[in-house]
Amino acid sequence: MTKPDTAVIDSLPSLVSDEWKEEDFLNYDGEGRPYQKIWKQYNSVEDCVKILEQNGHAGIESVVVLGTATGEILKFFDSTWNTRPYGCELSAWAYRQIPHPYRRRIKNQDLRHYVKECRMKVDMVYANSFMYLEEQDVPWVLKECARIARFLFADLSYSECYAENDRYRKILKPHRWWRDRFREAGFVPFKKYRRLWQSALTHYPI
Questions:
Q1: What is the C-alpha separation between 150 and 119, in angstroms, rounded?
Q2: Range of the domain at 129
Q3: CB 3.0 to 4.6 Å from 142: which of 32, 39, 132, 185, for a disulfide?
Q4: Pairing of strands 86-88, 149-154
Q5: What is the pTM of this model?
Q6: Is 122 domain-assigned?
């Protein structure tokens, strides 16, 4: 597996960011609505659960969330699958809003640092923050995800449909571009689902 160049990692920005500030989460959609009230509009977590449960849950017992925001998604996985995810959140303000029982497993950290340092093997990585990466970081970050988890659920903002008010997004590519990056990183599609991928680098029974 191709590893990220040490010089690239050393040049990454600070582990923690104040770029995403309190006002961004309190006025998340540009219409004065807080993230905590509308977070499901910007996540496909219910679809993720539905797909896996339609396939016998696929044995999901451990989850890493890349971009936890204020923690609503962590509570959702706990109440739905009885699992408290691990993961990371870049925004220092959002990290402080995560309820303490969940925050203990979350790092206030750039996802690029997180996946590089992660030594866990988990059933699934859930990510809705890849479009905030620099384009050149996507290949090696996805390869690290393929090393960590047997499944990846990628909730993305494609050029075919995207959140217009998302001023922090750095990548706006069509679905086919992301599909090629997932395949190059070692993922194969899970059945007919375009957002659920299985790592070819880990070997677990389905």
A1: 14
A2: 37-199
A3: 185
A4: unpaired
A5: 0.85
A6: yes
